[in-house]
């Protein structure tokens, strides 16, 4: 009897929180800084072997997603070994998919061809044109990264790599989305994801206000809807999910579900956590080299990480937008509620008629 679960997502940090950039808003460097052991050494092959063997034993379809820090710091040979090990380990009916989130600074033709050969979905972090991107995304010497990232993107396009751009929404980006969006479209970057910037754990660094985020969403939606009407649609993950929800489908983005999903984050030393946003000492589930996945699951349940993650904010109960908003990601909630509650209450009335029109249009085509 096949006891494997249908699907398993393993997020892997082969270089831990190490990075060749020093982005001032980096949430993961902030997380690592709060741990007893912050940045760990590069992942050893014994950890790789344990991740692959236990994941493939547990699930029919395994999604391996590499993040950091900056995963390319582990070197291309690391990933060549990884995919080779998967090929030698997986069963005939196993399915495997790969994703890779990068700042793009180390990519070249060899990396691009590797991604194409093995079907990697690549996410490239980019906050708009170089001058805007460079406000927060600088290297260790304080120099901007934008031009190099655009060169890497050109290589990915040339080699036919499937990729999208991920932008962190700060007040500066929010105020300039009218520049960012056309710049992306002009350069063929039509798969876009925007993540609202997190405050630092100590609360001293605040990069995005709810008011600015609300206006950003409205301005971005106007641009996105105009693209749709012109017959040249652009994929914005947040809006795509909202359209899908209105059409009767569950959101594919975990932060839009209103409750956390089952996933695993493997640090470079093999320590496993339940979420990229909670790689903290208090949420340690175990270590993949010594603990079976069943034990990791049991520890997650003991922490009630998923069980207590559903939105229970009192103010959400009567809200007309609860079915679409769902209280946001757990990481953006505290005792005062959802950080961007006011943003959503401003955004949804502004867009709901047009969102429903897009959803109905797409439903009529299927």
From TrEMBL:
Q: Which residues form the Radical SAM core domain?
A: 2-226
Q: Does the keyword Hydrolase apply?
A: no
A Pfam family found in this protein is: Radical_SAM
Spell out the molecular function terms from Gene Ontology. Answer: iron-sulfur cluster binding; metal ion binding; oxidoreductase activity
* Keywords, ordered alphabetically: Iron, Iron-sulfur, Metal-binding, S-adenosyl-L-methionine
Superkingdom of source:
Bacteria
Q: Which PROSITE patterns match?
A: RADICAL_SAM
Which InterPro entries is this protein grouped with? 4Fe4S-binding_SPASM_dom, Aldolase_TIM, Anaerobic_Cys-type_sulfatase-m, rSAM, rSAM_sf, Sulphatase_maturase_rSAM
**Name of protein:** SPASM domain-containing protein
Which species is this record about? Sphaerochaeta halotolerans
């Amino acid at each position: 009897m096949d006891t494997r679960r249908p699907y398993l997502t393993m997020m892997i940090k082969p270089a831990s929180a190490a990075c060749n950039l020093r982005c001032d808003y980096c949430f993961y460097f902030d997380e690592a800084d709060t741990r007893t052991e912050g940045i760990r050494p590069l992942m050893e092959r014994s950890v790789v072997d344990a991740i692959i063997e236990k994941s493939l034993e547990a699930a029919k379809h395994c999604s391996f997603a590499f993040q950091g820090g900056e995963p390319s710091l582990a070197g291309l040979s690391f990933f060549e070994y990884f995919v080779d090990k998967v090929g030698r380990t997986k069963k005939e009916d196993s399915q495997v998919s790969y994703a890779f989130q990068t700042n793009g600074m180390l990519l070249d033709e060899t990396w691009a061809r590797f991604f194409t050969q093995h079907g990697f979905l690549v996410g490239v972090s980019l906050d708009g044109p170089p001058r805007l991107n460079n406000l927060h995304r600088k290297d260790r010497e304080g120099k901007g990264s934008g031009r190099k990232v655009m060169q890497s993107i050109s290589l990915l396009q040339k080699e036919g790599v499937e990729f999208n751009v991920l932008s962190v929404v700060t007040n500066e980006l929010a105020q300039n989305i009218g520049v960012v969006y056309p710049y992306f479209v002009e350069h063929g970057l039509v798969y876009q994801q925007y993540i609202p910037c997190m405050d630092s754990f100590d609360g001293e660094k605040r990069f995005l206000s709810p008011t600015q985020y609300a206006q950003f969403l409205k301005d971005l939606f106007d641009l996105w809807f105009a693209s749709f009407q012109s017959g040249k649609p652009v994929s914005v993950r947040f809006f795509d999910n909202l359209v899908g929800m209105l059409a009767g489908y569950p959101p594919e983005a975990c932060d839009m579900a209103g409750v956390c999903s089952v996933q695993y984050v493997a640090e470079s030393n093999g320590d496993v956590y339940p979420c990229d946003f909670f790689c903290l000492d208090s949420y340690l589930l175990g270590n993949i080299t010594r603990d079976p996945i069943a034990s990791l699951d049991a520890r997650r349940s003991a922490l009630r990480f998923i069980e207590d993650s559903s939105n229970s904010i009192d103010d959400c109960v009567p809200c007309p937008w609860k079915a679409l908003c769902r209280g946001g990601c757990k990481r953006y909630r505290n005792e005062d509620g959802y950080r961007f509650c006011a943003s959503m209450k401003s955004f949804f009335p502004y867009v709901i008629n047009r969102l429903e029109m897009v959803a109905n249009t797409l439903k009529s085509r299927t």
